[in-house]
Write a sequence for this structure.
């Protein structure tokens, strides 16, 4: 999704950063070395030390979704939809549901400690919601089309919508029988419902995912249980589950954007990971293009400067990785073994860049 992408190494920092632009924003991205809250917090701390002028933080990637939520469970999430963590029902948008105190009969009382997104990010979210109410859907289909364009057939498939015929929701009381095998040819399809026959999925066109706004659950444990998923929703109004946001939001007012790739039950698979990651990234791009570039003029960058006098905006991506492939596109790694590819425009720099990016022709001079 980046324009003019390149890579950058920073002295005394072992991470290779990926930098570029989205509209008037200068963007820097990083990958966590492992899944979990602590690695995410460490990655952001290192990034902020190396890029001290970052203004905004986004945590973008994949998550497990709550199939139905809201009053009488009328709202439905299907695979490929996007969840944005915003304050609701007195919560800040992210709940660290493992953080709290054990009280009474082995009951964990969760203590809220995460921050809510910044006023600038929440304003951008609300403005984008207003735009989506006035026009036919978001620009996600456009950005996904641009992403796929120019990719070879095999690479393009990782970003394609697998289709509603592969969106199975199994009964809560029907667990996956063998973790070493996929559902196809193993699980009883009569114990599942295709989402295309439920609610709004049947009305949707390909590449027009719905965007849901609510509370994101975050912890160090993977949820592979429909019973646990349902309990977390009942207790904390959680509509999706992931493993990094609490580490970021404990100290920084960021915004969490997640594409739903499974239903947080025992029937997890990787078929939807690429598409879900792409829809989340496309929403993030649409949001940034609506967010004013703060901290000075449009020629100011969030990238480190030896004078430490520049300002601008940066983008932090949780466990997800962008790196320059040297083939005219960007590879996006969800951390789950699936590669998806971002088409880009502009010059490509295929070797690590040492020094200040103002030396590159497409970056502003100071």
């Amino acid at each position: 999704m980046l324009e003019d992408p390149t890579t950058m190494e920073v002295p005394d920092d072992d991470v290779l950063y990926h930098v570029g632009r989205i509209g008037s924003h200068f963007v820097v991205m990083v990958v966590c070395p492992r899944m979990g809250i602590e690695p995410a917090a460490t990655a952001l701390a290192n990034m902020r030390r190396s890029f001290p002028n970052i203004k905004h933080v986004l945590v973008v990637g994949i998550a497990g979704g709550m199939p139905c939520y809201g009053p009488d469970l009328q709202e439905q999430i299907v695979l490929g939809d996007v969840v944005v963590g915003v304050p609701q029902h007195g919560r800040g948008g992210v709940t660290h549901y493992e953080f709290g105190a054990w009280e009474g009969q082995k009951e964990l009382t969760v203590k809220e400690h995460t921050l809510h997104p910044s006023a600038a990010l929440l304003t951008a979210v609300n403005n984008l919601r207003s735009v989506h109410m006035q026009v036919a859907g978001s620009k996600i289909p456009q950005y996904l089309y641009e992403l796929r364009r120019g990719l070879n057939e095999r690479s393009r498939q990782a970003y394609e919508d697998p289709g509603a015929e592969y969106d199975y929701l199994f009964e809560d009381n029907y667990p996956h029988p063998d973790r070493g095998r996929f559902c196809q040819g193993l699980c009883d399809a009569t114990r599942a419902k295709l989402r295309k026959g439920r609610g709004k999925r049947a009305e949707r066109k390909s590449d027009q995912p719905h965007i849901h706004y609510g509370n994101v659950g975050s912890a160090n444990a993977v949820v592979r249980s429909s019973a646990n998923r349902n309990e977390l929703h009942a207790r904390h109004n959680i509509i999706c589950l992931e493993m990094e946001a609490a580490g970021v939001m404990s100290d920084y007012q960021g915004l969490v954007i997640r594409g739903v790739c499974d239903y947080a039950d025992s029937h997890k698979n990787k078929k939807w990971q690429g598409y879900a990651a792409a829809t989340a990234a496309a929403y993030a791009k649409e949001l940034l293009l609506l967010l004013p570039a703060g901290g000075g003029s449009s020629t100011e960058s969030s990238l480190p400067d030896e004078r430490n006098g520049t300002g601008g905006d940066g983008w932090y991506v949780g466990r997800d990785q962008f790196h320059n492939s040297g083939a005219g596109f960007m590879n996006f790694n969800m951390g789950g073994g699936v590669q998806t590819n971002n088409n880009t425009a502009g010059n490509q720099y295929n070797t690590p860049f040492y020094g200040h990016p103002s030396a590159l022709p497409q970056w502003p001079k100071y």
